[in-house]
Structure formats: C-alpha cells, structure tokens
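Table 4 source record.
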Amino acid sequence: MKITVTRDVFKLAQVFTISRGSRTEAKVLTVRVEDGGHVGLGECVPYARYDETLESVTAEIEGLPERFSRADLQDLLPAGAARNAVDCALWDLEAKQAGKPVWELAGLPAPGPEITAYTLSLAAPEEMQKQAAQNAHRPLLKIKLGTPEDMPRLEAVRAGAPEARIIIDANEGWSAEVYAELAPHLVRLGVELVEQPLPAGEDAALIGMERPVPVCADESCHDLATLPGLRGKYDVVNIKLDKTGGLTEALKLRAAALAEGYQVMVGCMVGSSLAMAPATLLAQGALVTDLDGPLLLAEDRDTPLLFDDAGVHPPSPALWG
C-alpha cells in the first residue's frame, strides 16, 4: 500500500471572513492510497484553531506504517484532519476494490440530495445586506457573526433576504451575557439555530440557561469522546469530518448523538468537492446540512459535486465513493 500527500490550493470566489480572520484561498491536503491497482482519494483542511498546519498534518500521514487497515487507523492517529483524509481515502479504496458504493459498504440507505446552507461572509451591515439580497433565492443562509456589532448585521441580512431561513455561527465570539441579551432578537428575526455562541472552554455557562433558539456545539464537539461533555449545554451537534477524523468515527458519533436525543448538523471546513463528498452520506436526514465549501470556490475538482435546487447531491464514483 502506497500513501502520497499533496498540497492543493483552490481560489475562493471572493474574500471569506469570519471573526478569526479572512482568506482568499482554500489550502488543502489530498491523500492518495494505492493498493492492488486501485486508488482511493481523501481530502482534509488543517485548521489552526486546532493547532494543525499543512506541515504537521502531512508529517502525521507520512509517519504511518506501510500497511494498516481502516480499523487500525483509528488507533494510529488521533481525531483530526490527518486521520480524516486517510480514513476517507481508505473508504474510497474499499469501494473501488469491492465494486460497491461506500454507502452500501457502510450499511447505509441509498443517499439523495440534501438542502445545504450557504454561508455569508462577515462584513459591514450594508455589505452583508447586499450579500443576502444576492442569495435570497437560496432556502437556507448561514451568517458568520461573533463580534460586538452583530445585531446591525443580523438585521441587515434579514432585510436583504426576508424569506430565507437563517442560522448563525458565532464562532465562540460571544459571552453568556451577550447571548442572553441577543436571544430574544434571534427569535424575533426568525433565526433557527445558533452555532457555538460561547468559547468551548467556557460553555458550562449554557447549563440551565434558557435557549429559545436551539444551540449547536461545533468547537465543543469533535469525536465520540467529547459527546458526554455536551450534556445540558447543547441541543444540536455539528459533525465535521476534519474534527472526527474521518467518516468511520463520524458515523459512530452521529448514531450516539441521535440516541442521546441531540439533533445533528453536518458541517465542513472550506474545501473542495472531494472533502464534502463523504459528508453527503453523513448528512442524510440531518437537521441542518452545511456543505457549501465548493460554492465558495472559484475553482474545484475535475468532477465536482452537483448543487441544484434539490441541494447538494451525493458524489459520482469519478469523484469519490
């Protein structure tokens, strides 16, 4: 078995800003696993918030032994971007070796399209209203917030897209006091979900707090081991493959979260269609699907995912799975 890691850069359609900073391109790692004449592909997006860099993740992958199974991988690497890319590449490899799609190998029902959120970049209120108006035809908009000037932005987006469903992502940018103050306004403006309002290390303040809008754990939820720590704080968990360390762990986390009464959101980092492809299987029936990474790009893989009025479609075998 041969594993190779390459760096790929995809230009964004426009500058993308969240409370932590801005970017003009998506830098990803592509993993190829070759075995017996078959090639499996996977992609990950190293994330500085989790102390990951392109270099550190590459080193993790290149440090793997010459041969191992997907089951072995779960112990060889921790949850995170490196394990994700390899895990998804191994799923793709197994599908090609078996001549069956990944959903069938995983014992899942045949997947279909899912409506995905479309993310508006953080900007001045007038610019966000313009973005909202340009994308008002989309059924679900996601707003990046997490600053002291959030209410004017939220009001502007609602004015620009009066009919769209809205969810917001505070990216750990609020305090408990700010969230409590904003909550009635979120209800008034029809916000359906609030993603990670408080810093992951300070989210105990959510216990016992009234949550008129469902609160979703993102930075506080990584893999199955982090699920017990969410009890009493959150209503929804955001499952991302780059956090769980691949589809294998993500499927376990989804099953466990649903069994414990959580709703599920399936999210992504800003990556190409290859990164989103495995997540389309995970997103089947999710409360919220947020797999808009390719929609934010000016360029994509040669066989990209299909996005249309029905949502994001499962990948063709030429892309993955």
